[in-house]
Design goal:
The protein is an all-beta fold. The protein has strands spanning 10-12, 17-26, 36-52, 58-64, 67-73, 76-82, 87-90, 96-99, 106-113. The chain is built from no helices and 9 strands. The model has no long low-confidence stretch (mean pLDDT 95).
């Protein structure tokens, strides 16, 4: 068994994110998982992530606070606001942006395929 205590989790900087602090919990450089990684993201009020896509699937699970996910479907922008224990899947190469439009820190569990 490979354990990562929150007190021992390593921070990381996510490209194209602002006012966000991230912690690696499993996979990546935290443990030897090969198929996915799991991170904890803290988005400060006004924080977010720029429009981007990724060759990985990502599941966002909101543990606390609220986050707005923006996507584009057939050129039309859509917004979905997720609250406590809501979740979404960002598919392979899906274009998305993330915004915390509240005055409360949003805590998000992010599971990413490798």
């Amino acid at each position: 068994m490979q354990v990562t205590k929150l007190s021992d989790a390593k921070t990381y900087e996510a490209k194209q994110h602002w006012d966000m602090a991230g912690l690696r919990l499993q996979g990546a450089d935290a443990t030897e998982i090969e198929k996915f990684s799991c991170c904890l993201s803290y988005f400060l009020p006004g924080g977010g992530a720029e429009w981007a896509s990724s060759p990985n699937e990502k599941a966002y699970i909101v543990l606390d606070g609220e986050i707005t996910i923006l996507t584009k479907e057939d050129g039309v922008q859509k917004e979905t606001t997720l609250g406590h224990l809501d979740s979404c899947l960002i598919e392979f190469n899906e274009l998305r942006a993330v915004e915390n439009r509240t005055n409360k820190v949003a805590t998000i569990l992010v599971v990413i395929s490798n």
